[in-house]
Design a protein that fits this description.
The structure is a single chain. The protein is α+β, with helices and mostly antiparallel strands. The protein has one domain: Gcn5-related N-acetyltransferase (GNAT) (Aminopeptidase, 3-Layer(aba) Sandwich). It is built from five helices and eight strands, in the order ββαααβββαβαββ. Helix 1 packs across helix 3 and helix 4 packs across helix 5. It binds coenzyme A (COA). Coenzyme A binds next to strand 5, helix 4 and helix 5.
Length: about 180
C-alpha cells in the first residue's frame, strides 16, 4: 500500500468516503476550468474516475493519490500519475497532474504533493521521466511546474478538444529531491 507523508499532507490510495468530497471538488466550474474540456463532473463520473485511478494503481504501481490534510483529515483533492490515454502520441509517457478544491489553493499544498509524487515516480517507482501538460492561461499550474523544475518541451494540440497543450518534462538527472 503506497502512502507518502509530507510535512502537511498524506498522499494515499482512495477510500469510499473520498467520493463525496472529490465530487464536490469536481462540481466546481472554477476548479475544472483547465481540466479536460472544462466540464464539471458529477458524482457518477467522479466514482468512475476514482475506480480508474485505483485500477491504474493495481496494474501499473502508480496512480492518482488522494491528498489528505494531516491537520484536519480533510480531502484536499488529487495529485499523482497517469498515462495520458486520450493523447495517442503520448501514450508511452507518464504524466503528473493536480486538482485541489478551491479552499485549498494558495497554501503550497499542490507543490508539496507534486514534489513528493515526483520523488516517488523517479526515485522509488523507477520511471525514466515524467511529463505534465498545461493549457495556455493555466498560470497556477505553470507556477507549480516552474517550482518543480519541469521544463517546457513543445506544444501539441489535443485531438479531441482541439486546444493547445504545452508538454513539460523532467527526468531523474534533472530532479532535485
Ligand atoms: C493548479 C493548482 C493545483 C495549483 O494550486 P496552488 O495552490 O496554486 O499551488 P501551490 O501549491 O504551488 O501554492 C501556490 C502558492 O501558495 C502560497 N503558499 C502559502 N503557504 C505556503 C507554504 N507554506 N508553502 C508554500 N507555498 C505557500 C505561495 O504563495 C504559493 O505561490 P508562489 O509559489 O507563487 O509563492 C490549483 O490551482 C488547482 O487545483 N486548480 C484546478 C485544477 C487544475 O486546473 N489542474 C491543472 C489542469 S489539469
Amino acid at each position: 500500500m503506497t502512502e507518502i507523508r509530507t510535512p502537511r499532507l498524506m498522499l494515499r490510495r482512495w477510500r469510499e468516503d473520498d467520493l463525496g468530497p472529490m465530487a464536490d471538488i469536481n462540481a466546481d466550474p472554477e476548479v475544472m476550468r483547465w481540466v479536460g474540456d472544462g466540464s464539471v463532473r458529477d458524482l457518477e463520473e467522479t466514482a468512475e474516475d476514482i475506480e480508474r485511478w485505483e485500477e491504474e494503481w493495481d496494474d501499473e504501481g502508480f496512480g492518482l493519490f488522494a491528498v489528505e490534510l494531516l491537520a484536519s483529515g480533510e480531502l484536499a483533492g488529487c495529485v499523482g500519475l497517469s498515462v495520458p490515454l486520450s493523447l495517442p502520441e503520448l501514450e508511452h509517457e507518464v504524466q503528473i497532474s493536480w486538482r485541489l478544491g478551491r479552499q485549498f489553493w494558495g497554501q503550497g499544498y499542490a507543490s508539496e504533493a507534486a514534489q513528493a509524487t515526483l520523488e516517488f515516480a523517479l526515485q522509488e517507482r523507477g520511471l525514466d521521466r515524467v511529463i505534465s501538460l498545461s493549457r495556455p492561461g493555466d498560470d497556477a499550474s505553470r507556477n507549480v511546474l516552474r517550482k518543480l523544475g519541469m521544463a517546457q518541451e513543445r506544444e501539441i494540440t489535443h485531438p479531441e478538444y482541439d486546444v493547445p497543450l504545452f508538454v513539460h518534462s523532467i527526468d531523474l538527472t534533472e530532479f532535485t529531491a
